[in-house]
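Run log // design_07
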């Protein structure tokens, strides 16, 4: 296992510095409990502290989660992030339930990642200090604890939602770990009991800063009519998983450094998948201070990064939905692509069942790959080549359910996407960035990126030159792309950028 600097970790613990929240956890020998760095309890003595890079490592070492600082609410990030693509991809699959239920093995997970089982176990121990099974079990326990604290769901539903095979197993795990039944952990006054129409509300933490307004603006400009609505500082959308349909509402709680997610969905087993998708869409796992510090090493980009601290790289709710949206957006404006997407939903999307709790403007779920692949005609009056690309993407998704999962390297992901008829370099890079969550993806030929780069540098540029320029932004070129898109839309430059350069750029693109 990669060793943490105990002295540095202890200093961070003493200061309760929120910058390190989620980066590591401390196990206290005298109590048998592991905590976040911001735990309000009295700081333990140095000799009683052991530091772990993940909650799973602390739990596997025999420590139980603290009931005061609640490790399940820590931002989901880690100091190892970016050091092992295999571990990162494995965690994404585990979050999707790859090790939940009968017949889900580490062997099968390793095979999907293209590595041996022993190699996968070794990488997990090196980077996380815990085995894949321990990570999956910790995820189940912490998610169940999250539901116990913040909802009034019945115990059976909590167990099912967290991925436990039975209520008996759920009770055994909690009794062994906390020395008390799950019901004893529920705070009687923690939440009020909502009505059935109100759904389930959870808080998801992030590591600040978080540029919520930029995130909402980005999503609003691309919101698909009937599927997504941005209003009253909230994001709402329809969701369809399996044969079930529902909707979510996401709001910002800046004072709690969290997003509030209200979920109305009939199948509790889908809750972990829904939460994972929300985290991915809103990029809650980013270590944004580290990323911004790296991008700020570029003297031309630094003023623009300082203008928007906490600017995230928006993900997608569903890989297929994002891919179709990218194809519709080829060589047309964002607004025109949005209009086409709305027409596609009206023609092929599944209407939401009537319910008094459905927010205004949400009418359909986005059409599934199976529905589009079997459609006799797309029916949008678009060029035949683009309609064929939509059908080809739908068929490829049906054929390969892992098309949008983070398997292999970024180059392998791009090659898989480019092999689909109608998918060029720009489309592949955009899908990789937002759907597969490759944080080094960079669609260099994008007009918005070229305009943003020209505004930053004071002179027009070419895709080839921009790719060369972006080398210093690795491994977070996706975040640099967000700053370029934001710069492209900016009317005035930030302090530190030259007015003359900006004026010259605007003249060049007039």
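design_07 sequence
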């Amino acid at each position: 296992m990669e060793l943490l600097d105990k002295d540095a970790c202890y200093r961070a613990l003493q200061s309760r510095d929120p910058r390190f929240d989620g980066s590591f956890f401390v196990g206290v020998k005298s109590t048998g409990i592991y905590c976040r760095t911001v735990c309000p309890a009295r700081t333990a003595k140095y000799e009683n502290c052991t530091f772990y890079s993940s909650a799973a490592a602390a739990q596997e070492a025999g420590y139980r989660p603290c009931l005061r600082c609640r490790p399940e609410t820590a931002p989901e990030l880690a100091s190892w992030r970016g050091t092992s693509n295999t571990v990162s991809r494995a965690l994404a699959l585990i979050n999707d339930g790859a090790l939940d239920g009968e017949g889900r093995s580490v062997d099968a997970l390793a095979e999907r990642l293209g590595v041996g089982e022993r190699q996968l176990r070794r990488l997990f121990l090196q980077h996380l200090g815990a085995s894949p099974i321990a990570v999956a079990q910790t995820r189940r326990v912490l998610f169940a604890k999250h539901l116990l604290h913040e909802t009034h769901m019945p115990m059976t539903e909590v167990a099912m939602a967290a991925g436990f095979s039975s209520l008996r197993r759920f009770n055994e795990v909690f009794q062994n770990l906390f020395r008390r039944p799950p019901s004893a952990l529920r705070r009687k006054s923690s939440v009020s009991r909502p009505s059935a129409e109100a759904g389930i509300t959870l808080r998801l933490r992030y590591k600040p800063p978080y540029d919520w307004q930029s995130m909402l603006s980005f999503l609003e400009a691309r919101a698909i009519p009937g599927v997504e609505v941005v209003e009253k500082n909230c994001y709402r959308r329809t969701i369809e998983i399996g044969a079930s349909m529902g909707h979510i509402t996401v709001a910002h709680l800046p004072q709690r450094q969290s997003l509030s997610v209200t979920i109305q969905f009939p199948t509790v087993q889908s809750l972990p998948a829904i939460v994972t998708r929300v985290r991915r869409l809103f990029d809650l796992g980013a270590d944004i201070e580290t990323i911004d510090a790296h991008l700020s090493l570029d003297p031309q980009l630094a003023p623009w990064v300082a203008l928007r601290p906490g600017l995230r790289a928006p993900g997608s709710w569903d890989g297929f939905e994002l891919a179709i949206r990218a194809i519709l957006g080829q060589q047309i404006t964002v607004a025109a692509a949005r209009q086409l997407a709305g027409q596609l939903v009206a023609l092929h999307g599944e209407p939401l069942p009537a319910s008094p709790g459905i927010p205004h403007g949400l009418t359909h779920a986005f059409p599934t790959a199976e529905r589009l692949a079997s459609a006799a005609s797309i029916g949008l009056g678009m060029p035949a080549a683009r309609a064929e690309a939509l059908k080809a993407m739908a068929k490829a998704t049906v054929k390969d359910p892992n098309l949008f999962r983070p398997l292999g390297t970024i180059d392998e992901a791009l090659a898989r996407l480019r092999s689909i008829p109608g998918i060029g370099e720009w489309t592949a890079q955009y899908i990789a960035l937002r759907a597969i969550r490759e944080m080094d993806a960079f669609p260099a030929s994008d007009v918005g990126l070229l305009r943003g780069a020209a505004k930053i540098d004071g002179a027009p540029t070419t895709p080839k030159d921009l790719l060369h320029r972006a080398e210093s932004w690795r491994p977070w070129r996706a975040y640099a792309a967000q700053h370029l898109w934001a710069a492209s839309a900016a009317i005035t430059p930030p302090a530190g950028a030259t007015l003359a350069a900006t004026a010259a750029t605007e003249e060049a693109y007039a």
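The chain has 22 helices and eleven strands.
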